[in-house]
Amino acid sequence: MKELIIISLGGSLIVPKTGIDYLFLKKFKKLIEAMTNSDYRFILICGGGMTARNYQNSAKKVVKLTRDDLDWLGIHATRLNAHLVRTIFRDIAYPVIAKDPTKKLNFKEKVLIGSGWEPGWSTDYDAVLLAKLYGAKRVINLTNIDYLYNKNPTIYKDAKRIIEIDWKSFRKIVGNKWDPGANVPFDPIASREAQKLGLEVILANGKKIKNLEYIIKCKKYIGSRIFG
């Protein structure tokens, strides 16, 4: 049996501020296809990225939005990104986007693409629920930074890098409430569920494709590990 790996593909990788990063997607596709030819299958959960934030911020300028409004804009942005990624992987991917992480799909393809589901949490939570549903032991959370920090390194110069941390300690950093559009390393709701499952989550820079290969193969890598 091939190992099933869940990858939470941050929207900042798919759609950064400069627009859709097709060069990244091309490299990412090449790696995933190579890995599916060996010992792995994948579920790829797509984030919303700047697509989500652009819609949310634009709507805020016109009208006062509810939390549900913000969440739904973000969710539909993840679905648009998911369709983009599914199209790229069309030759090896299940033909339908997985929108409900509690409903098991009998997919035999090498790749399943997922998106956001309901208001109240991010695609990180969907990734954790899919890991539970399909029995995956680890989630790889890809963003645009190399490591997890104890606070935002772009704001605080004294932010400290974290290589390994247990869920209890990590949850003290991210808190317990989900805020639509929040830029956190891993959704607080997802973190709570991952702790219950004893899931291993690795946070790493998705742009470093060779490093992602090392993570998949359980070799020495650049990134942060949450466990316990």
Q: Can you walk through the features of this model?
A:
With 228 residues, the protein is an alpha/beta fold. It has a single domain, classed as 3-Layer(aba) Sandwich (Carbamate kinase). Helices cover 40% and strands 18% of the residues. It contains eight helices and nine strands. The protein has helices at residues 11-14, 22-36, 49-60, 67-88, 123-134, 167-174, 188-197, 209-216; strands at 3-9, 40-46, 111-114, 138-143, 148-149, 161-162, 164-166, 200-205, 224-227. The strands form two sheets. Strands 3-2-1-4-8-9-7 form a seven-stranded mixed beta sheet, with helices on both faces. The model has no long low-confidence stretch (mean pLDDT 94).
Largest sheet: spatial strand order: 3-2-1-4-8-9-7
* Total individual domains: 1
- CATH homology group: Acetylglutamate kinase-like
Number of DSSP strands? 9
Q: Kindly provide the radius of gyration, computed on alpha-carbon positions and rounded to a whole number of angstroms.
A: 16 Å
CATH architecture: 3-Layer(aba) Sandwich
Strand count, sense and closure of the main sheet? Answer: 7 strands, mixed
The proportion of residues in beta strands is: 15-25%
Number of DSSP helices? 8
Percentage of residues assigned to helices: 25-40%
Task: Summarize the helices and strands and which ones pair or pack.
Elements: E1 3-9, H1 11-14, H2 22-36, E2 40-46, H3 49-60, H4 67-88, E3 111-114, H5 123-134, E4 138-143, E5 148-149, E6 161-162, E7 164-166, H6 167-174, H7 188-197, E8 200-205, H8 209-216, E9 224-227
Parallel strand pairs: 1-2, 1-4, 2-3, 4-8, 7-9
Antiparallel strand pairs: 5-6, 8-9
Helix pairs in contact: 2-8, 3-4, 5-7, 6-7
